[in-house]
Specification:
Helix content: 25-40%
Shape: globular
Low-confidence stretches: none
Number of strands: 4
Number of helices: 2
Strand content: 25-35%
Radius of gyration: 15 Å
Mean pLDDT: 83
Structural class: alpha+beta
Largest sheet: 4 strands, antiparallel
């Protein structure tokens, strides 16, 4: 199982909605057009296939950024500015 940050830029509102609904079945919605997904290799292939059927490749883009194996990398390793992530801050940083 691998953790993926999936971000998308979809130019058509109808396709955008379909991508969002599809992504909700695979991961946790973090921000507008950003999901955190824990996917086995087969689920990733299935997700990518479903998304390919929705998007217009010449107009849309979906980015899959690997964050490492599930259980090895903690989602709290992801840092944010502004509003905290759904998992809270990793703790104070001493400089």
């Amino acid at each position: 199982m691998q953790v993926w940050l999936v971000c998308y830029d979809i130019s058509d509102p109808k396709r955008l909605r379909r991508v969002y609904v599809t992504m909700r079945g695979y991961g946790e919605h973090w921000q507008y057009s950003v999901f955190l997904c824990r996917l086995s290799a087969s689920r990733k292939v299935r997700l990518m296939s479903e998304l390919e059927d929705i998007i217009a490749p010449a107009e849309d883009q979906i980015l899959f950024a690997p964050l490492g194996p599930a259980g090895v990398r903690n989602e709290r390793d992801i840092e944010t500015l502004g509003r905290p992530s759904p998992y809270g801050a990793p703790g104070p940083v001493v400089l």
